[in-house]
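Fig. S4 source data, part A: sequence.
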Amino acid sequence: MSQQLGIILMVDVEAAIKADTLKGNSYLFDNMKLQGSEGQGTDSLVSAVNGSHWFDGSQANEQVLNWLPYGVGSLPPTIPKSFLIDKSKNSDLKALDDFEQLVDRVEKTEKDKFTNVASIINELKKIAGSKGKKTKVKSKRKTHKRDLGASGQKLMDVTGQLVDASNEEEVPAINSLNPIITDITGEAVDKKIIYPAAYGSPDLVTDGWYWAASVDTSKPGTYAYTMHVQLYKLALDEGEWTWVPVDLTCDAYLKVSNGPKVNGFTGAGVGMLPIM
């Protein structure tokens, strides 16, 4: 069975967009530190890919890389994927309930309080302000469009609270949309060391898509590759809050060795763990 190697790309979305670069604003990690990976937590990760053969000398099968991008300061990926949509829908339902209660107050329970139009308008403004602002998503991509889930979501801060902002000066620290990897290119691809592709998945963290690649471990060496990353900048577009795509790139490396596959716990051949 192929060994699954995970590479996590953490992006400070706000800083990267402001600087127009992922350099110094991205942090890479993988699960091969004990096998020799270098640069953990930096934007120049060198992932160790060991094991062109089994411990007994026989040819090993290929290894598989999986890339997962996340945004620093966004809501944690461990919460249900439907959280943002549910929050948006629930705020609309609450607003409808508040309107019904207002009608009851005006007609019955608090008739003396609402003696003029201005007092009713003030209550309506309070209700409208509590339901947040909807957003839409622009996409440059012809496939894997993101706006199926993100459009219609409300503007939300990093604590998960809805935000009622009318201009960019009023916007606090916003929960940004997670970055998306749109392509993997570079030396490792050109020399056929890795064979990357985007895969559909029921994974509720990656918007249904993730990038993976099989690795040809028969060609030892250090190879560069480039991740093409799409971030989203929040801006007002014709009076509507809109997530505008920003395309940046991030370089990383693979260090393929011709050593044997080993057990990460024992350092010996891949097989049964010893019983203590």
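Fig. S4 source data, part B ends here. The chain has a mean pLDDT of 80.
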